[in-house]
């Protein structure tokens, strides 16, 4: 097994000596073997650093990485944990986030105004619009622009505004529908937990069930989306018929009456 001094280890792991020391201080990297005043690391340290860097790239904090490694060292299968983590963190949408400037957002949210009129909007009105859109998850600050996590969602909002619905009303319905979707998601998760026997008597996930839990979540993904889409389509059809059928019939009757 190869041995490394700290600078050699950092170079082999494509990181810095400072990071190696930080990993050691935070408990995610074992101490080196001491030979006099020299600390020598081996390939197990190199593998550990590469694992830590990989987990960091997936968004884990050092504290969470330490917990994962501790579980691994207690006998848990880290690959099972990471397999579960993948289905937990994989995005449920194939959308590619976009970026827009404040001017472009103004074009979308104030389509009836000319460029000069939009430029003359009070700063507090523009700020309130941006704050509300950010709170709803439509946009996220990104330097001198704004990141758009879901261009589709923003497009829906812009289309509703273009159809004549006030911006505040669009924000209100987005907030309400978001709450409705949270409730739907909670019901699906509760259904899964209640009927898969993955928890023990304390409500914790049993280690042996990690692969099964990952499989259940992966299967739940398309089923939940298909269910929500089908039921929403049916509900929209029912609501449209209920709300507008009488008006259409009334118009037809008046049209048929002799003048």
UniProtKB/TrEMBL annotation:
Highest taxon of the lineage: Bacteria
PROSITE patterns, A to Z: HTH_MERR_2
Keyword Cytoplasm listed: no
Entries under InterPro entries matching the protein: DNA-bd_dom_put_sf (IPR009061), MerR-type_HTH_dom (IPR000551), MerR_fam (IPR047057)
Molecular function as annotated in GO: DNA binding; DNA-binding transcription factor activity
HTH merR-type domain residues: 3-71
This protein's record includes keyword Transmembrane: no
Key words, A-Z: DNA-binding
Name of the protein this chain belongs to: MerR-like DNA binding protein
């Amino acid at each position: 097994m190869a041995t490394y001094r700290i600078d050699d280890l950092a170079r082999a792991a494509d990181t810095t000596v400072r990071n190696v020391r930080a990993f050691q201080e935070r408990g995610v990297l074992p101490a080196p073997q001491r030979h006099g005043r020299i600390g020598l690391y081996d390939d197990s340290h190199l593998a550990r650093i590469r694992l830590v860097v990989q987990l960091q790239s997936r968004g884990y904090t050092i504290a969470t990485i330490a917990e994962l490694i501790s579980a691994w060292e207690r006998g848990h299968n880290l690959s099972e944990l990471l397999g579960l983590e993948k289905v937990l963190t994989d995005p449920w949408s194939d959308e590619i986030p976009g970026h827009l400037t404040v001017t472009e957002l103004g074009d979308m949210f104030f389509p009836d105004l000319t460029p000069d009129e939009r430029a003359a909007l009070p700063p507090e009105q523009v700020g309130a619009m941006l704050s509300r859109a950010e709170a709803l998850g439509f946009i996220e600050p990104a330097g001198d622009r704004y990141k758009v996590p879901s261009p589709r969602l923003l497009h829906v909002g812009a289309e509703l505004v273009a159809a004549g619905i006030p911006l505040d009303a669009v924000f209100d319905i987005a907030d309400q529908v978001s709450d409705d979707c949270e409730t739907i998601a909670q019901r699906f998760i509760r259904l899964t937990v209640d009927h898969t026997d993955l928890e023990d008597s304390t409500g914790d996930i049993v280690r042996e069930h990690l692969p099964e839990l990952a499989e259940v979540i992966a299967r739940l993904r398309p089923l939940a989306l298909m269910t929500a889409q089908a039921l929403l389509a049916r509900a929209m059809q029912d609501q449209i018929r209920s709300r507008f059928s009488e008006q259409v019939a009334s118009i037809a009757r008046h049209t048929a009456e002799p003048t």
